[in-house]
Amino acid sequence: MGKKGIETLVGLFVLLGMAGLVFLALQAANLGTFNSGETYALLAKFDNIGGLKVRAPVRSAGVTVGRVASITLDPKTYQGVVRLQVERGVQFPADSSARILTSGLLGDQYVGIEAGADEKSFAPGDTIKQTQSAVVLESLIGQFLFNKAADAGSATAPPPPAPAGAKK
């Protein structure tokens, strides 16, 4: 194989490596799916969205059925308003609930929709009434430490003195 043949193979190898890096970057940024199918919008209001990001998946039963389109703050209720783009072929009952969940212990957050049993389905632009906010790990750790400190403080405190008229 001549010098030009080796240079061509090295060039192809570099191009394949660059294509692989672009693919990994798209996957890491949740841009790897180029699904441009028909969708409809749903809104959900949460007290705390945690680390939820735009383009995060919307899943039901572990299957990705949409994406988070936008996240805004409602100026009246001070809740996070999450706009979801759900695939048109997936219709959820009107009594379905939405929760912000985490992939694994420290993974990315996503919106999980649990289907209800109502015969009527959500219309485009409807608001999901039943929501559960994100569980913030820092808050849980803080509560745990506070409770342990309170328990330790009450265990080492001396017993209260007996009333003056009490017998021993």
Fold and architecture overview:
The chain has a domain at 36-145. It is 27% helix and 29% strand. It has helices at residues 3-28, 137-156; strands at residues 39-46, 57-60, 63-73, 80-87, 97-102, 109-114, 127-128, 130-132. It contains 2 helices and 8 strands; from the N terminus they run αββββββββα. The protein is α/β, with parallel strands linked by helices and 168 residues long. Strands 7-1-4-3-2-6-5-8 form an 8-stranded mixed sheet, with no helix packed on it. The chain starts with a helix and ends in a 12-residue tail after the last helix. The protein is flat, with a radius of gyration of 26 Å.
Describe the structure in brief.
This protein is of the alpha/beta class. 27% of the residues lie in helices and 29% in strands.
Structure annotation, total helices: 2
Q: How much β-strand is present in the residues? A: 25-35%
Structural class: alpha/beta
Main sheet: strands, sense, barrel: 8 strands, mixed
Helix content: 25-40%
Strand order of the largest sheet: 7-1-4-3-2-6-5-8
Uncertain residue segments: none
Got a strand count? 8
C-alpha geometry: flat
Mean pLDDT comes to 85
Q: How far from one another are the termini? A: 104 Å
The H/E string reads HEEEEEEEEH
Computed over alpha carbons, the radius of gyration is: 26 Å
